[in-house]
Task: inverse folding
């Protein structure tokens, strides 16, 4: 009898999750409105713990969370744009997930880029959740019309330029290349990989040092500026703050554009007539890189410990082959590379390229990312907009030097 | 004793006095709801803003008292002063354009002709559009690839090729001015029109008989007599323009290259993009003081001294 009681007590301690099903609240930014509800439904259907999902508009997520946190009504868990993880961790808003993360048998297979921005001061605060990598897409219909091999992807800047010129020569309303020239977020995602692939960087020392004025950055800017100057890019790109980022290429009159893996699903569903190819974002003389984007899942610092088993169960479900498959089928790349192939099985083969890009992709680390990069008036977008459309090389240098100074001063004053 | 103070030295007869006291209390009851609203929505937030401006107040995490550091910092914040300077320039240009245009409209529609009320409606219609929707409409019209302005400029022979009017400062700035004048002129037209209609017809008639030309009548009769409504329009226009935000945020996002970031836009960026709420509060206080000074100045300059 005594032994029996003891056994029951041990079971109760070891398996607190079984004691009673928990419900926890979960937020996701609207970018996840395709895959998240499906994942949550599948998890809730298992009949034990329940996740209560709320979708928050992508541009309001940080503000909404902060206001909720100030009033003590923050969600228990949150799928957060990964680049914000350091700033949330720095503000003391997040729970330390180091033990849990490292206890997972497949810890080493989780997305390195996500984990690198999920860490703060040597502890893990954010774990990989959804993923979106930047890639280069090209319009095969236009390539064919222009007499190019529609199946041959450009592999360096000179080839991009040649292909763009051939496509632009087709006529007035056809352009070789497109990018959103006034959008900081779009360009950190699709322009920065060109610099990375050529050996440059934007930050060093965990975001403590800005390195804007590098030859690689200057080359990449000049590459874009040259295409603008020669009319290979539509004039509207100069004032596009992101609203045309995807739509321009989908319109069918753009030869090549850097984009994200999200475009594969969107093009397949909404523009079935558009034949397109997907490749890596190349460096100046070859090689390639990618921005590993997407969400980290984080837990609010004030979340009660009794809810942790339920949240952990949800995260483990998302990492299971079943969960990874649900994510992959609904527009997010897998974040566990040992089951990526299995999760992507039967899907468009172009996803494999994006998944490959994801696995080797980079994510810049900065607790002031919003200030520097995403702000409509931040130094990053101000520099790019001025430099891409500059009349002279001196103006480019000036824009780069100003951005270097301003970024460094923002970083310094935040510490 | 207290009755004496309330009623003043030359006290009226007792009966009347009681009634007046009674009406004073009723008056207080009447203003009470307004007073409560002002307290809750103006005085309390104002005090909170002052309190906030003395802190380092991040959006997440705990505020820390830092005294006047925020104010010291703003003294050397070039981007704040340049945003303020841009706001002043915008206010001067838009006020002249807006009031001039509104005055012209008011003169056109002050008569009694059959079509006049139709004109009034047409001129007033844009006023009821929200600034955000009007700005979005403008963004759409200005789009170089799909909008209306670029082909229009081409057809009129103003430009050779397509032109992205929002990409350079001067055309972008003037396009916002045109949008604001289009949207707001009807509002100021109504204010000025009410002034015009309050001028007795005899005055103009007498002047006309004396042989005064239109311009003379406008200068010596119309303008002096609509001084008060004009002052009201001016103060509304200046304080409104000093607080400009939506149109620059939506149409230009502060671009090209941050040349059109207004003071309120800068405050918005500090508070809700960079999450420095304390600093944003300090900037707001500075803007509030500037507005206060401007309004007092305008009131003194334009108030009818003979009335006092």
Result:
């Amino acid at each position: 009898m005594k032994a029996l009681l003891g056994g029951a007590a041990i079971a109760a301690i070891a398996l607190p999750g079984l004691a009673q099903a928990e419900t926890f609240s979960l937020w996701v930014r609207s970018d996840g409105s395709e895959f998240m509800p499906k994942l949550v439904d599948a998890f809730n259907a298992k009949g034990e713990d329940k996740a209560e999902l709320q979708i928050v508009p992508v541009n309001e997520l940080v503000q909404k969370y902060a206001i909720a946190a100030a009033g003590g009504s923050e969600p228990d868990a949150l799928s957060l744009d990964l680049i914000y993880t350091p700033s949330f961790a720095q503000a003391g808003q997040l729970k330390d997930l180091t033990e849990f993360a490292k206890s997972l048998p497949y810890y080493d297979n989780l997305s390195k880029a996500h984990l690198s921005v999920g860490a703060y001061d040597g502890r893990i605060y954010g774990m990989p959740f959804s993923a979106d990598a930047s890639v280069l897409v090209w319009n095969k219909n236009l390539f064919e019309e222009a007499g190019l091999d529609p199946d041959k992807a450009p592999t360096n800047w000179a080839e991009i330029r040649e292909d763009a010129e051939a496509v632009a020569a087709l006529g007035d309303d056809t352009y070789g290349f497109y990018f959103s020239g006034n959008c900081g977020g779009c360009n950190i995602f699709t322009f920065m990989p060109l610099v990375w692939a050529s050996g440059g960087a934007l930050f060093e020392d965990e975001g403590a040092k800005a390195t804007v004025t590098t030859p690689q950055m200057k080359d990449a800017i000049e590459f874009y500026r040259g295409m603008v100057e020669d009319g290979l890019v539509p004039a509207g790109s100069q004032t596009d703050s992101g609203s045309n980022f995807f739509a321009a290429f989908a319109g069918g009159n753009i030869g090549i554009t850097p984009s994200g893996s999200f475009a594969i699903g969107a093009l397949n569903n909404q523009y079935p007539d558009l034949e397109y190819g997907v490749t890596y974002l190349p460096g100046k003389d070859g090689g390639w890189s990618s921005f590993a984007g997407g969400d980290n899942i984080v837990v609010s610092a004030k979340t009660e410990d009794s809810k942790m088993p339920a949240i952990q169960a949800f995260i483990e479900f998302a990492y299971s082959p079943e969960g990874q498959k649900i994510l992959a089928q609904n527009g997010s790349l897998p974040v566990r590379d040992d089951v990526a192939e299995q999760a992507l099985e039967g899907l468009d083969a172009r996803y494999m390229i994006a998944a490959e890009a994801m696995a080797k992709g980079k994510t810049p680390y900065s607790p002031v990312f919003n200030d520097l990069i995403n702000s409509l008036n931040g130094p990053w977008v101000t520099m790019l907009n001025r430099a891409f459309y500059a009349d002279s090389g001196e103006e480019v240098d000036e824009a780069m030097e100003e951005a270097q100074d301003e970024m460094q001063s923002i970083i310094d004053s935040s510490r | 004793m207290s009755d004496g103070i309330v009623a003043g030295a030359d006290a009226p007869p007792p009966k009347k006095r009681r009634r007046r006291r009674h009406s004073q209390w009723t008056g207080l009851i009447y203003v009470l709801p307004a007073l409560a609203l002002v307290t809750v929505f103006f005085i309390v937030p104002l005090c909170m803003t002052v309190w906030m401006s003395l802190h380092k107040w991040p959006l997440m995490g705990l505020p820390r008292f830092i005294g006047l550091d925020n104010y010291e910092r703003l003294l050397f914040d070039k981007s704040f002063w340049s945003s303020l300077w841009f706001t002043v320039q915008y206010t001067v240009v838009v006020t002249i354009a807006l009031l001039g245009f509104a005055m012209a409209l008011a003169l056109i529609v002050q008569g009694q002709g059959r079509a006049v009320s139709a004109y009034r409606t047409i001129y007033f219609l844009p006023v009821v559009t929200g600034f955000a929707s009007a700005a979005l409409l403008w963004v759409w019209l200005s789009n170089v690839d799909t909008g209306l302005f670029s082909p229009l400029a081409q057809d009129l022979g103003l430009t050779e090729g397509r032109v992205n009017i929002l990409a350079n400062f001067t055309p972008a700035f003037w396009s916002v001015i045109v949008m604001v004048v289009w949207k707001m002129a009807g509002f100021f037209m109504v204010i000025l029109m009410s002034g015009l209609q309050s001028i007795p017809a005899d005055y103009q008639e007498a002047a006309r008989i004396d042989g005064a030309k239109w311009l003379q009548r406008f200068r010596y009769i119309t303008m002096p007599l609509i001084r008060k409504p004009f002052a009201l329009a001016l103060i509304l226009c200046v304080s409104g323009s000093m607080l400009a935000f939506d149109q620059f945020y939506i149409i230009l996002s502060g671009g090209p290259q941050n040349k059109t970031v207004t003071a309120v836009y800068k405050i918005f960026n500090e508070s809700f993009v960079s999450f420095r709420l304390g600093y944003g509060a300090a900037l707001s206080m500075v803007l509030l003081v500037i507005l206060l000074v401007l309004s007092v100045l305008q009131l003194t300059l334009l108030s009818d001294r003979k009335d006092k």
